[in-house]
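hey so i finally got around to running the thing on that chain from the lab meeting. sorry it took forever, my laptop kept dying and i had to restart like 3 times. anyway pasting the input first so we r on the same page abt which one it is
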Amino acid sequence: MADYHGFAMRDFQLDGVACKVVSPVQAAEGKPWVLRARFWGHEPQTDVALLNRGWHVLYADVGGLFGAPPAMARWDALFGHAVGSLGLSDKFAIEAMSRGGLPAVLYALHQPDRVFGLYLDAPVLDVRSWPGGYGASDQRAAEWSACLKVWGLEDGDAFTGSPLDRAWEFARLKIPTIIVAGDADIVVPIDENTRPFAARVLRRGGVVEVIEKPGVDHHPHSLKDPSRIVEFLVSAWDDRSDRR
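ok and heres what got predicted. didnt touch it at all, straight out
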């Protein structure tokens, strides 16, 4: 066992994929948990606050997959382990920073009955924005090539599989979603990702709250005091049975 900010952490593998689970001192009723999509350990204040509330925090590496089907399969495997081997709830939340926004929203679309809430932070919601560089940000050549390869594309011109493209479909699920993003972000421009996604979701009756940080670029992620994020997720957990 390793230590994660005073909590016990176990590293393990599922089908060769690196995974982690951090356990609270005492699990909350129903054994809620959050899946950390990417960038394990970065700005951990939300993780720590949820652990203090009795939540588990889990992770399965989906790096380099850009939300493509192999990422969905890895999280399906983690879900099976969480519920079957760890005895955790069969509904969970996802915490996603930057490119983690891609698999987070796409997994909610893939398995909507499993996801009761999302926390997205400076999220990539359109691969053409990042890493494609079709808009205001520079193209990230290596990442863009990897993204096209994993999705089986020659180019991104006709791609309609990003969260932004599927925002109408996501809205119908009414999964509570909170987004934190800097309005000066030049890496993942807010006008190409958070704002149009939230507008489409809200227009179709979805549930999304956006916290814009004035003058903030891509970093730092999260909020110094994560209580607003934490309370949003706890409320989504408490209301999970009433959503549909």
